[in-house]
Amino acid sequence: MNRIEQHHLIPTTKYEIILDSVRRFLRRGAINPISKIVNKMHPADIARLISEVEKKDRFIIFELIQDVKIKASTIIEIEEKAMMEMLNEMPFDEVVAILHEIPSDKAADIIGKMPEDKAKELLNMMKTEDSKEVKGLLKYEEETAGGIMIPQFFALSENTTVQQAIKALQKAKEVEMVFYIYVTDDKGRLVGVISLRQLLLVPPRKLLKDIMVKEVISVATDMDQEEVARKVARYNILAIPVVDKENKLVGIITVDDIIDVIKDEATEDIYKMAGLNIDEHALDPTFSSIRRRLPWLYINLLTAILAASVVGLFTNTIQTVAILAAYMPIVAGMGGNAATQTLTVIIRGIALGELTLSNTMKALLKESVVGLTNGIATGVAMALIAYLWNGNYMLGIAVGLAMIINMFVAGLTGTLIPVILRAFKIDPAVASSVLVTTFTDVTGFFSFLGIATLLIRHIAV
Amino acid sequence: MNRIEQHHLIPTTKYEIILDSVRRFLRRGAINPISKIVNKMHPADIARLISEVEKKDRFIIFELIQDVKIKASTIIEIEEKAMMEMLNEMPFDEVVAILHEIPSDKAADIIGKMPEDKAKELLNMMKTEDSKEVKGLLKYEEETAGGIMIPQFFALSENTTVQQAIKALQKAKEVEMVFYIYVTDDKGRLVGVISLRQLLLVPPRKLLKDIMVKEVISVATDMDQEEVARKVARYNILAIPVVDKENKLVGIITVDDIIDVIKDEATEDIYKMAGLNIDEHALDPTFSSIRRRLPWLYINLLTAILAASVVGLFTNTIQTVAILAAYMPIVAGMGGNAATQTLTVIIRGIALGELTLSNTMKALLKESVVGLTNGIATGVAMALIAYLWNGNYMLGIAVGLAMIINMFVAGLTGTLIPVILRAFKIDPAVASSVLVTTFTDVTGFFSFLGIATLLIRHIAV
Question: What is the pLDDT of residue A337?
Fold first, then answer.
């Protein structure tokens, strides 16, 4: 990542130069040159520009876009929160015009996020055809195949000829991205698939049912979007058909939406482990970040107090040998580091589908051995350092032994806790890290101060 | 993630049933039924099966695949380490047969990972045409556009007619996935692009140069793969052309390879923050995990000792009031938690391209305010708890004040350190967390024990 980021530091890229100029023109109130710039840009770039200028300037730029299609493509590329803010400030007829131009899965997302009465009114104002599609999509949960699919797809009956298929394809203007032609039987059930290119390679008289691939990879409407993404990635396909319970084709999911899912889910895992809300971005308003992060910090404060109360049991020991207070956080901290390594591997293994019931025991055994071995490796080093530092080999033994115990516990709980949480259908990425760290803190303090108390006559000199 | 994982817990899915049966047949040495199962499976599923059976059984399954094309598609879907192990055990002519069947970017990856003499011999044994392509690709660095592109693409001269283009398309068998037809001038420079479907919609006599889109989104051979992925995701395209310094078309990158990049880079960020090696998987051999994680643990041990030495400065204070030792890790730990939240947001912001030079100051200001405010919110709570717990309000003031200071420092260093590292072209995901934690540990211990020392007459009762 290091190499590619450089260009963000100095505004030498084309985009940064544009951003700079637009900002300068905005300050001067020079609208004409901005209009010229904006109307030459790709919607994705205009969206980026809009997210990076000041809030009050967003609409100035947006309203300069002349083509309503570009307007629509731009707004859906803007980050969700800003997009909804803008849509909520727009006049109703402009929102409706935009909703007509965007894919219906996106329209359903937007309407699903609006206040109920506003959503109703917008649906009433939309063309019947479009609003029907959107209403159909609103039935499905947001993070499922049904929630991310587009209900427009290109499907033909199995008795169509290749020639007819090509004609139909030339006529179909509504469907934006055709990669595959799905083939259905007389009841609308998905029975086959043909790629666009294959169609060019076979005699025009052939029937689709004779040339189609019959083993179609499809997903059910209620499949979680993360599993859909996994399937698309595994089979290297560009679009996956979505079927209902009777195997009737109801929509397709294209690879560009899959990319968004994969990006979001990866961020989700990193974020959850740090106790962050999925929607938080580096440049969000300060107050919303404060409010969102605080609950996690309070939970951590409680667990920290729990761990600290263990230390409270040993005040006599600490009073006798105050230097123990310096070693204590080392033991707890190293346990925490080892636990984070184990946790990350296990949580990622679960997310990537590598960890199954059958191999969990194997992972548990492995992580315990890793924890124990790395505990010995670092514990012995620490014991030596403690001996050299304080000239007290019993102190060295206490700290080394406690580290070995704690890092073994780290491997054990780092594997067990996410697996158990998953079995109880609790998302392991959210709750694991705070639980595991509490374990390693408590174990670290208890084992180290406990051993030190037992050896106190040899340690206190 | 919770919902979709369920099915991994009980073997009720089709795949788990297959895995179970295959294992049973393997134990009985019943090869025929396995062969029947395997030859009906999708290569991606066979690859998964091979990674989940015992090492000794891998080849039994692999050699049952009858079609060499399926064999080739299977082997490249296997996780890298296992794939290389298998390829290194295979006879040379089988490896060559496989190399001929896979995309040349994958072939180049594989050959690049083999011992040099073996790589040379394999290149000699390959068909000249194929080995030329592979040699061409070996020039590029692995994680750049050049390293992940396929040198086969479908390009036509700008003076071709639509009719000629369709004919050419029907003949082109080598090119696996055609979504776009790239248009070049007489010097091979990329000048336009047309989608396959557009081709069906225009009169057959038209020249490509009259119907092509002239603004082609392309990348240079040396662009980092993460930036390529960002570009493909931003513009929602299915394949991106790769050009050399003279704008000559040299290859394309398809969206399925982009998905792999996005998946890998996301894992990379999570892993780096925990000090893990990118290639580590939940079920890797124990010894390799031990060896890979140990360096990070040693680095953390050193920084923990550094922080502990701060505690060593205050042994007199601790000897006087031993309960301080219990509060100390709370102050340090809460700083660590707040820092991790800031760090994660900043590192992700850098990775997603949201943080640029122009808005870094804004992020810094924001994170400082968030740190300070959350420090006050949790610090005041902790001060009250300390007062209630030990009945000593001066102790409460010391711990509360130290927490406020430390969480402010957490927000500050959590933003500054990754940004500074990036400016020095050091990957912020790798080094930030250990540096930031050291800061919050040192600040936590120093501020708390320092304040306690100043107030010692009021705290010691």
Answer: 92
